[in-house]
Amino acid sequence: MTKINLRKITRDDTEEIHRIDSICFPADIAYTFTEFLYLLRHINQPCTRGIKGFIIEVNSKTSGFIIARQNKKHSEIITVDILPEFRHKGYGEKLLNFMEQFLTKNMVKYIFLEVAVNNEPAINLYRKLGYQILKEIDAYYPGNISAFVMKKKI
Ligand SMILES: CC(C)(COP(=O)(O)OP(=O)(O)OC[C@H]1O[C@@H](n2cnc3c(N)ncnc32)[C@H](O)[C@@H]1OP(=O)(O)O)[C@@H](O)C(=O)NCCC(=O)NCCS
């Protein structure tokens, strides 16, 4: 039987988070290790601001993660990453639902995110969970790729 565990990211996970992100995104888009060190330096402080994040473990193996930035009643999904061998099993959806429930309890009313216009799996995932496209930002990503800004009221 598959055992699934969701837990808070800690600073000790920085190396593993960086490893997964480097697999999930091309080098010009993935965060560097130094960027993750900075991003996760105050991860999951018990307050209504700052960086929040969770890891999903499948049979005790780290399979993906989600990171959001909260600013009181608004939050932005920074990224959700699932390792290729764990995709199409509902884990991305599970992580996003889990983060939304956490943010709801933590007073958040609206979630925003940016996603590359050519990232069909992610756009479908967000649409499925009720995110709507607000606008398009030209050349947001390297390679002149535009981004959709999406929003959900939770
Ligand atoms: C986007 C991502 C997180 C999806 O994770 P996942 O665990 O495979 O997704 P799930 O199995 O939970 O799928 C949930 C929904 O997402 C959509 N989806 C997922 N993979 C898809 C694909 N390859 N093509 C089209 N839609 C897809 C579907 O709507 C799916 O619902 P369905 O199974 O009822 O059709 C994963 O592909 C990933 O890590 N990609 C690389 C990193 C990335 O781009 N992250 C988003 C940053 S903005």
What's the topology here?
Elements (H helix, E strand, L loop, with lengths): L3 E5 L5 H11 L8 H7 L9 E10 L2 E11 L2 E9 L8 H15 L4 E7 L3 H9 L3 E10 L3 E9 L1
Parallel strand pairs: 4-5
Antiparallel strand pairs: 1-2, 2-3, 3-4, 5-7, 6-7
This protein binds coenzyme A (COA).
The site of coenzyme A has 20 residues, from strand 4, helix 3 and helix 4.
Explain this structure to me?
- This protein is α+β, with helices and mostly antiparallel strands and 154 residues long.
- It has one domain (4-153): Gcn5-related N-acetyltransferase (GNAT) (Aminopeptidase).
- It is 27% helix and 40% strand.
- The protein has four helices and seven strands.
- The protein has helices at residues 14-24, 33-39, 91-105, 120-128, and strands spanning 4-8, 49-58, 61-71, 74-82, 110-116, 132-141, 145-153.
- A seven-stranded mixed beta sheet has the order 1-2-3-4-5-7-6, sandwiched between helices.
- Helix 3 (91-105) links the parallel strand 4 (74-82) and strand 5.
- The longest helix is centred in the middle third of the chain and has 15 residues, at 91-105.
- The protein is globular, with a radius of gyration of 15 Å.
- The mean pLDDT is 98.
- The structure holds coenzyme A.
